[in-house]
Write a structure and sequence with these properties.
The complex is a heterodimer of chains A (about 70) and B (about 170).
Chain A lengths: L13 E3 L1 H10 L4 H16 L6 H14 L6
Helix pairs in contact in A: 2-3
Chain B lengths: L1 E7 L3 E7 L7 E6 L7 E6 L2 E6 L1 E9 L2 E10 L4 E11 L2 H5 L23 E3 L3 E2 L12 E2 L15 E6 L3 E5 L1
Antiparallel strand pairs in B: 1-2, 2-3, 4-5, 6-7, 7-8, 9-13, 10-11, 12-13
The chains are: A mainly alpha (about 70), B mainly beta (about 170).
Chain lengths: ~70, ~170
């Protein structure tokens, strides 16, 4: 099995800029209110998904809550 | 993994990465002011639009090893810049069972009603997949079998829609 990423859409070379983006991210203040709203929106998307059964929704919500629990310090 | 543009008000616009594979999910956080090499102008359906070309992917790199990556297309170099990567342990079953959620273009809302927002949307959303033998297919725009439209009726209406891969909404 190929372990490589797929070919780039539209072609072109790939350059690693992760260090630069990590540096800029560290300087950018986080908006905790917006982050919380993002999480709550995921819950709402699951609850209102017309293609998911009630049982699947309950499982998905439990899984989401577990994944989104703040990491232990 | 989600790679997206986040808006708050008219002036706080950022590119962010939220990685579901890790416990500290919030990763990349870049103000648009730092993305001048990546933002470009285009015209779709006669409308002038500012766009950011984003490529996000999750793929298997070894036995029970997976990789999440985000790349942005650099307008200046005409190439792709790798801006985020995370390797993690996972099985194919974990990647495909339960509620995997969905992938694709979404204008996600965070209040009950919107009005007078700037235009928001996606152009030419493409997907590529690997078969069981490990061979990548070809990039192609989303098809009817790969996408559905959900409208939560929160004040947005389409400026234009190209089923199933492009849309821009206004309020």
């Amino acid at each position: 099995m190929s372990k490589k990423r797929p070919p780039p859409p539209h072609g072109g070379k790939i350059v690693d800029r992760r260090a630069e983006f990590e540096r800029i991210t560290r300087r950018s203040p986080r908006n905790l209110q917006a982050e919380r709203a993002f999480i709550e929106s995921k819950m709402r998307l699951v609850r209102t998904d017309p293609n998911v059964s009630d049982e699947e929704k309950q499982r998905a919500l439990a899984d989401l809550e577990q994944k989104l629990r703040p990491p232990r310090r | 993994m989600e790679a997206f543009v986040s808006y708050q008000g008219q002036n706080d616009t950022r590119f962010k990465v939220f990685d579901w594979a890790r416990s500290d999910q919030w990763q990349t956080n870049i103000l648009f002011a730092n993305l001048t090499s990546y933002l470009r102008s285009t015209v779709a359906h006669g409308w002038g639009l500012q766009v950011l070309l984003v490529w996000n992917s999750s793929f298997e790199i070894g036995v029970n090893r997976w990789r999440n990556e985000v790349l942005l297309h650099n307008r200046v170099t005409n190439g792709w810049d790798l801006v985020y990567r995370y390797d993690y342990a996972s099985t194919t079953a974990e990647q495909t069972s339960g509620w995997p959620g969905s992938w694709g273009p979404i204008v996600e809302t965070f209040q009950n009603s919107y009005q007078n927002t700037r235009w928001l949307g996606f152009l030419n959303t493409m997907l590529i997949a690997r078969n069981a033998a490990g061979q990548w297919g070809n990039w192609g725009v989303l098809t009817a079998s790969q996408s559905t439209i959900r409208n939560h009726n929160q004040g947005f209406s389409p400026l234009f829609l190209d089923p199933n891969y492009s849309f821009v909404v206004r309020s």
